[in-house]
Amino acid sequence: MDVNETEDRRLGLHLPFDDGHERAPLLLPPTKTMDAADEKGERPDLSEDTAHQISVDPWYQVGFVLITGVNSAYVLGYSGSIMVPLGWIGGTCGLLLAAAISMYANALLARLHEVGGKRHIRYRDLAGHIYGRKIYALTWALQYVNLFMINTGFIILAGQALKATYALFSDDGALKLPYCIAISGFTCALFAFGIPYLSALRIWLGFSTLFSLIYIVITFVLSLRDGITAPARDYSIPGSHGTRIFTTIGAVADLVFAYNTGMLPEIQATIRPPVVKNMEKALWFQFTVGSLPLYAVTFMGYWAYGSATSSYLLNNVKGPVWIKATANMSAFLQTVIALHIFASPMYEFLDTKYGSGHGGPFAFHNVVFRVLVRGGYLTVNTLVAAVLPFLGDFMSLTGALSTFPLTFVLANHMYLMVKRHKLSAIQKSWHWLNVIGFTGLAVAAAVAAIRLIMLDSSTYHFFADL
């Protein structure tokens, strides 16, 4: 064992469980594919045991999990939230640059999955392993905020899709947005009761991909048709100089939000060994082929409608009622599946700490536990979504408060901590530049997002029917 590997192992911190007792680490289950460490009998231990299934998914299934997040119904808002405040040059360069930076940061995280002879299946475990208990708790808090707000945004999105569908067939305004949000939250809860863990999505990832293609293709084609027949569009960036500063910073937060999950270690935990190589394959899949639908619908929407593009692109397009209804319902159904991905770390925590591992996931007492606990969690999400249904603001605040710190600041600093003896002075300077730069961006983006929420809150009342 060389000096660097010894140092990596010295960094190990065996965190106790919340009940104060140390427990023997759970060994990875045997698989047909084994990396070099496996062959030498040095297979890493898991940082803690878990009630969920891990180490069973091929890299392409994990790739589809990532693509499901990237091409969720959130893509229907990027024309309005990214392209409108940044314009053609800023928006295009921003999307491409954010993709490159996000790919790099996620690759760093993927390479830290096995550190100190342990496989870290949760983001907070990895941070606690490197820094200690306080940063463990801080990372968990940041991740919880990140995932809670993403899930809240998904419920808002699903509610908007339902309301848009209803408005196609009736103009009486009886089905208001808060009611649609309540229906969406209930549907997401029903889905959560039946899918015990992330790996169990399997065939649902295929449905998710199908739903994504339906609303993206329909939106793309209808936007193209509208753009061809429409008069000249206005592509100028709206707002006064002072307002543009805040909207530009908010759009930058939306850029990083578009590509990142904030839960890469949890997703990587489901992948088969060799975990780092397979995760890198999944990431390349996400940032190449998987990102093309996002680019297509974002650029086409902005080209067709210019600065008049709304935060939900299907509100702009014109076409047959049944086609638009199909797109909206596809967006609704895909959102239900995508929310489950981003809620899975919270589900895993609750199931592991408070659930019963006896009898299998569909034993009566385990199903009842999921109904009570997951139902309660999603009820809170739904209530927040109905009270503050400002989707674009949520995207900006989520990017500022959690996506920047988790994906960029912590990833670079953790890599510095673990690999510091292997990095040159130039490499160390590069990572420190990332840490300082993204910390500054996170603070600026948080201020801009809070300002936007305050403005929208003063314009719209609680439970607004937007």
Automatic annotation (TrEMBL):
<feature type="compositionally biased region" description="Basic and acidic residues">
    <location>
        <begin position="1"/>
        <end position="24"/>
    </location>
</feature>
<dbReference type="GO" id="GO:0015171">
    <property type="term" value="F:amino acid transmembrane transporter activity"/>
</dbReference>
<feature type="transmembrane region" description="Helical">
    <location>
        <begin position="86"/>
        <end position="105"/>
    </location>
</feature>
<feature type="transmembrane region" description="Helical">
    <location>
        <begin position="397"/>
        <end position="418"/>
    </location>
</feature>
<feature type="transmembrane region" description="Helical">
    <location>
        <begin position="325"/>
        <end position="350"/>
    </location>
</feature>
<feature type="transmembrane region" description="Helical">
    <location>
        <begin position="203"/>
        <end position="224"/>
    </location>
</feature>
<keyword id="KW-0813">Transport</keyword>
<keyword id="KW-0472">Membrane</keyword>
<feature type="region of interest" description="Disordered">
    <location>
        <begin position="1"/>
        <end position="48"/>
    </location>
</feature>
<keyword id="KW-0029">Amino-acid transport</keyword>
<feature type="transmembrane region" description="Helical">
    <location>
        <begin position="371"/>
        <end position="391"/>
    </location>
</feature>
<dbReference type="GO" id="GO:0016020">
    <property type="term" value="C:membrane"/>
</dbReference>
<feature type="transmembrane region" description="Helical">
    <location>
        <begin position="135"/>
        <end position="157"/>
    </location>
</feature>
<feature type="transmembrane region" description="Helical">
    <location>
        <begin position="282"/>
        <end position="305"/>
    </location>
</feature>
<keyword id="KW-1133">Transmembrane helix</keyword>
<feature type="transmembrane region" description="Helical">
    <location>
        <begin position="430"/>
        <end position="454"/>
    </location>
</feature>
<feature type="compositionally biased region" description="Basic and acidic residues">
    <location>
        <begin position="35"/>
        <end position="48"/>
    </location>
</feature>
<feature type="transmembrane region" description="Helical">
    <location>
        <begin position="59"/>
        <end position="79"/>
    </location>
</feature>
<feature type="domain" description="Amino acid transporter transmembrane">
    <location>
        <begin position="59"/>
        <end position="449"/>
    </location>
</feature>
<protein>
    <recommendedName>
        <fullName>Amino acid transporter transmembrane domain-containing protein</fullName>
    </recommendedName>
</protein>
<dbReference type="InterPro" id="IPR013057">
    <property type="entry name" value="AA_transpt_TM"/>
</dbReference>
<dbReference type="Pfam" id="PF01490">
    <property type="entry name" value="Aa_trans"/>
</dbReference>
<dbReference type="GO" id="GO:0003333">
    <property type="term" value="P:amino acid transmembrane transport"/>
</dbReference>
<feature type="transmembrane region" description="Helical">
    <location>
        <begin position="177"/>
        <end position="197"/>
    </location>
</feature>
<keyword id="KW-0812">Transmembrane</keyword>
